[in-house]
Amino acid sequence: MKITMKWLWRGSVAMAACGLAGTAGAQTFPAKAIRIVIAYPVGGGADFTARPIAQKLTERWGQPVLIDSRSGGNAMIGADHVAKSPPDGYTMLLSASSEVSLNVVLFKKMPYDPVRDLQPLTMIGTTPPLLLAHPSLPVKSVRELVALARAHPGVLNYASIGTGSPQHFAGELLKTTFRIQMTHVPYKGAAPALIDMVGGHVPIGLVAPTTAVPHVKAGRLRALGVTSAQRSGSMPEIPTVAEQGAPGFDIVQWYALWLPAKTPKEVADKLHGEIVRIIQTPEFRQRQQEVATDVAPSTTEALGAYQKASIEKFRKIATSASITPE
User: Fold this and answer.
1) Which of 35, 44, 87, 279 shows a CA-CA span of 20 to 30 A to 158?
2) Is the pTM of this model over 0.85?
């Protein structure tokens, strides 16, 4: 009994020491530069979202917070780098949907497991693909588009920014939800897709609103709906697909922050509290609305649950659309 009690006492002392070490680590964090890794080129949506967060953290903590662009590999290069970085809070990933959910469905093998190897920090915001039609097409709503597609099965083509993008999956969900036939025409980005849509070469398309709204305002394209569950805060006049005959329809591009798995809770909590404070400021919300992103901070638990639900949603759509992993 004495031996048992002695080891129990030693164990409790060791546990207490670990707790004190964790608290001390959080109190001294950050003691050096922090990197926010994005898996996309500089100048895109992830970069635009990351920079004001980095600036405010630098001002708050007096340590440089740097943007580290590691693009390529379907956004897996940057995410893999973070997944394999030391779990000390000094390396974060600012992700879009692909590297943390969509790629699980699109690829048989990934260099990292986004659920196992990345630790959720907080959701930042969501932006819905915009369903568009050329003005020459005799439709002004989703219901009219569905009626036209059913009257002419397989005749309509729809553009997206690329195979496996949220826009592509939104188009496939549209087809299965309304039981219509349309042919997917993938482009390498929004710019070439919009050129052909404005030119009338592809009558329907799904594109991020940032690049599409100027064409809508100029009358070159017609907005039929957004694919999010609720109307976008930056485009409240555009109805959702859900309210036009498809309850539950919800596909968005989303941005979130992640840490390497096993980052100490005290450090993660400190990062979470400060970053949520930043992204809830009117200044940040206004900046995000300029690119049609609705700010939506979350708990770490809610982000983890959303990630898993997103993977399952995309997996079901892929199965229905016969999209097979590479």
Assistant:
1) 44
2) yes
Find tokens 């042919």 and name the residue: 183
* Start-end of CATH 3.40.190.150 domains in the chain: 30-127+253-320
Nearest CA-CA partner of 302 in 32, 121, 163, 164: 121
| pLDDT tens per residue, range 267-281 | 999 999 999 999 999
CA atoms within 13 Å, Cβ hemisphere of 42: 5
DSSP codes of every residue in 56-106: HHHHHHSS-EEEEE---TTTHHHHHHHHTS-SSSSEEEEE-SGGGTHHHHH
Distant-in-sequence, close-in-space partners of 154: CB < 8 Å, separation ≥ 6: 181, 182, 183
CATH class in words for 130-244: alpha beta
- The 10s digit of each residue's pLDDT in 42-91 is 988 899 999 999 999 999 999 999 999 999 999 999 999 999 999 999 99
Q: Which CATH superfamily is domain 30-127+253-320 in?
A: Bordetella uptake gene, domain 1 (3.40.190.150)
Query: 314 phi and psi, to 5 degrees?
Result: -65, -35
